[in-house]
Amino acid sequence: MEELTVALSPCPNDTFTFGPLVLGWVKIPVRLRWVFEDIETLNRLALRGEIPLIKISYALFPEVWERYQALPVGAALGRGCGPLLVASEPLSPEDLSRVEVWLPGEHTTAHLLFRLAFPEARHRRFVLYHEILPALISGKARAGVLIHEERFVYEKRGLYLVRDLGAWWEEETGLPLPLGGPVVRRDLPEGLKSALTRAVRESLRLARERFPELLPFIRSYAQDLSREVISTHISTYVNEYTEDLGEEGQRALQELVHRAGAKGARDLVWGER
């Protein structure tokens, strides 16, 4: 049986959506080898173009669209789910030109949104996403952009919201925010792409039906083990667009890629023809 490598993030929305597939609850006519890495590492792996199915930040699409297409299922996209720019003290947007801002990777959608919203803020430091919250709490960093589980707990840690970057995007475009999702290499056989799409949809269905049974697997990769935080994370990032990007989701993705500078990018989402 052919082996296919799939690379995902350890975030609850990915381990929820793909968990049943990882655990063998879904049958698929190919052997899958699973790799879990933080989103910036995944982005850098996608730039090499070797992994057949990989989760990326959609901000990376301008650099990889000629080699990859988005799967129509499995995306993190929606409203009220964007990265949050927070600070260890009250800051105004005008203060950002003088403050170093910690960001979860150069190729992330969080960085693209920050760059678009605050072009004058040039003091940027790129770190792993889970390093930002501790740095803000300890005073090592004054400002940072939070993603994943961290965006749900910053208030309890005494931090201050400077700008909701997802809200900024929605105000600018009127569209949901496309954060990231699985992409598949264009050169894979169409039948295999179809089988993968069906398998991920079935995995998502089973995840919803058997969440209590799946929870230990999700926790084994999560940064925050609280069921409340994990459930909030999943309900925020797993929605109707996760099941199918649809026309609006595809328009949002095209708009993000356009604003990132790839005006000629096309045919971004795989679909059976």
TrEMBL record:
GO function term, MF aspect, one: carbon-carbon lyase activity
Keyword Lyase: yes
One Pfam family matching this protein: VitK2_biosynth
Domain of life: Bacteria
Protein name: 1,4-dihydroxy-6-naphtoate synthase
Binding locations of substrate: 55-57, 109-110
Keywords associated with the record: Lyase, Menaquinone biosynthesis
Protein family: Belongs to the MqnA/MqnD family. MqnD subfamily.
Biological processes per GO annotation: menaquinone biosynthetic process
Substrates-to-products reaction catalysed: cyclic dehypoxanthinylfutalosinate = 1,4-dihydroxy-6-naphthoate + dihydroxyacetone
Pathway given in the UniProt record: Quinol/quinone metabolism; menaquinone biosynthesis
Top class in the EC scheme: lyase
InterPro entries reported in the protein's UniProt record: Menaquinone_biosynth, MqnD
Function description: Catalyzes the conversion of cyclic dehypoxanthine futalosine (cyclic DHFL) into 1,4-dihydroxy-6-naphthoate, a step in the biosynthesis of menaquinone (MK, vitamin K2).
Organism encoding this protein: Thermosulfurimonas marina
CDD domains in UniProt: PBP2_Ttha1568_Mqnd
Catalytic residues in the record: 148 (proton acceptor)
Gene designation: mqnD
Entry EC no(s): 4.1.99.29
